[in-house]
Design brief:
The chain has about 220 residues and is α+β, with helices and mostly antiparallel strands. Helix content is about 45%, strand content about 10%. The protein has eight helices and six strands, in the order ααβββααβαβααβα. The strands form three sheets. The protein has a two-stranded antiparallel sheet with strand order 1-2. The chain is globular and about 50 Å long.
Length: about 220
C-alpha cells in the first residue's frame, strides 16, 4: 500500500515537473534545434525504440548528435567520427536527452528510474528483467554512481537495487545529485578508454554487478 502511494506521488511529480520544464526550456530547445540544423544535414531529433516498464516498447526522443548516414551499432567512442561538432557538446553536457521530458510527460518514462535501453527483454536473464518492473528514467541511480564507466554487471545491479529500494526520498536525492554529476563533474559520459560498450547479457549478470548494487545514497 505504501509503495503504491509512493508510485502515485512519483507519477504526479513526473507530470508536474516535465510540464513545467518543457515550458521553461522551450527557448533552449529552439536554440539547440537551430544549431543542430546549421551544423549538419538531417533531422533535429533522433527517435529510437526503447524498452519500458514490463517490456513495453516506446519511442524515446533525443536531440540528434550524429551524422545521418552512420554505420550501424550502439558502441560509441569519445572520438567517434559519427558525432557532429554540436552533438559532441550536447552529449558532454547531457543536453541531448532533454527531449525525453516529453516521454516523461506521456508516462512512458519517469524522471528517475533504470536506464532506458533498446535491448530486447528476451536478452535478459531473470535477474536483469527485474529492472523492467519500473519505468525507465531520465536520470537514475546508475547516473549518479558512475554511468558508462561502470561495467554492465554493475549498471544492471544498480538498476535492480533501485527497483528494490525505491522511495520518494531516494528519487529526490538522485534528482538533487544529478546536476552536479551531469553538469559539473560530467563523470561517466563515456566508458573506460573513451568507449561505450554494447550490452552483453553474460557480463550483465556478473556477481560484481550485484555486489555493487548495495551502495547507499
Amino acid at each position: 500500500m505504501v509503495r503504491q502511494l509512493q508510485l502515485a506521488i512519483k507519477r504526479a511529480m513526473d507530470l508536474i515537473f516535465s510540464a513545467i520544464s518543457l515550458t521553461i526550456l522551450a527557448l533552449l530547445f529552439a536554440l539547440i534545434a537551430l544549431v543542430i540544423k546549421l551544423d549538419s544535414q538531417g533531422p533535429i531529433f533522433f527517435k529510437q525504440e526503447r524498452i519500458g516498464r514490463n517490456g513495453k516498447r516506446f519511442r524515446a526522443w533525443k536531440f540528434r548528435t550524429m551524422v545521418v548516414h552512420q554505420a550501424p551499432g550502439y558502441q560509441v567512442a569519445q572520438d567517434d567520427p559519427r558525432i557532429t561538432r554540436v552533438g559532441r557538446r550536447l552529449r558532454n553536457w547531457g543536453l541531448d536527452e532533454l527531449p525525453q521530458l516529453l516521454n516523461v510527460f506521456l508516462g512512458q518514462m519517469s524522471l528517475v528510474g533504470p536506464r532506458a535501453l533498446p535491448y530486447r527483454p528476451e536478452q535478459y536473464d531473470e535477474f536483469q528483467r527485474r529492472r523492467l518492473e519500473m519505468k525507465p528514467g531520465l536520470t537514475g541511480w546508475v547516473v549518479v554512481n558512475g554511468r558508462n564507466r561502470l561495467s554492465w554487471g554493475e549498471r544492471i545491479g544498480l538498476d535492480v537495487w533501485y527497483v528494490e529500494h525505491f522511495s520518494i526520498g531516494l528519487d529526490l536525492w538522485i534528482l538533487l545529485k544529478t546536476p552536479w554529476v551531469v553538469l559539473v563533474t560530467r563523470e561517466g559520459v563515456y566508458g573506460p578508454e573513451g568507449i561505450n560498450e554494447e550490452f552483453a547479457s553474460s557480463q550483465a549478470s556478473s556477481p560484481a554487478g550485484r555486489k555493487r548494487s548495495g551502495h547507499e545514497p
